[in-house]
Amino acid sequence: MVPRIGPVLAAVAALAGCATEDRPEGEVFRPEYLGVETRLLADDLVNLLVTMGGARDLQDVVDYAECAAAQYALIRGYGFARQVRTNVVEEGGLWRGDAVYTVSPTLPKGLRTIDAEVAVEDCRAKGIQTV
After folding, report:
1. Residue 64: is it exposed, middle or buried by C-beta count within 10 angstroms (0-12/13-18/19+)?
2. Of 83, 86, 116, 126, which is the most exposed, with the fewest CB atoms less than 10 Å away?
3. What is the pTM of this model?
4. CA-CA distance, 105 to 44, in Å (whole number)?
5. What does the alpha-carbon distance between residue 44 and residue 103 come to, in Å, rounded to a whole number?
6. Apex CA 35: angle with CA 111 and CA 103, to 5°?
7. How far is CA 72 from CA 9, 11, 20, 81, 91, in A?
8. Which domain of life, per UniProt (predicted)?
9. How many domains, the chain?
10. Low-confidence ranges of the chain (pLDDT < 70)
């Protein structure tokens, strides 16, 4: 017979497995958000250049760029953004992201759409800086 565990213990077990799957449990994440340079390419198209130290991998840089794009959309009076592309390079421990986003007042078509208000709140909760 297989022992049964309660839903709380099952959730804890699942979360414990997630902690070590992608990133080691003992790894300390100390990000340095070193700035965002914004270049307006068109009325609804923006290029964001982000620089970061202490990233664990390229996803941390992509997240930083997304947070900057969401805040930028709000600053411009738009409610949404959509990722067009993001390129990431790492050299000597310094990570750079070169991202392009569209911004719009309505939900754009596409797969990588961002509700700017929700994203900025999520970024704040995670401690990721925005513009």
Report:
1. buried
2. 126
3. 0.79
4. 10
5. 5
6. 30
7. 41, 36, 34, 9, 27
8. Bacteria
9. 1
10. 1-26
Token digits for 63? 């997240």
Facing residues of 39 across strands? Answer: 47
The token pair at 12 is 């804890």
Residue 88 lies in a domain: yes
- pLDDT at 28 (0 to 100): 85
Residue listed under structure tokens 């805040």:
71
CATH number for position 51: 3.30.70
Cα angle vertex 48, ends 66, 23, to 5°? Answer: 40
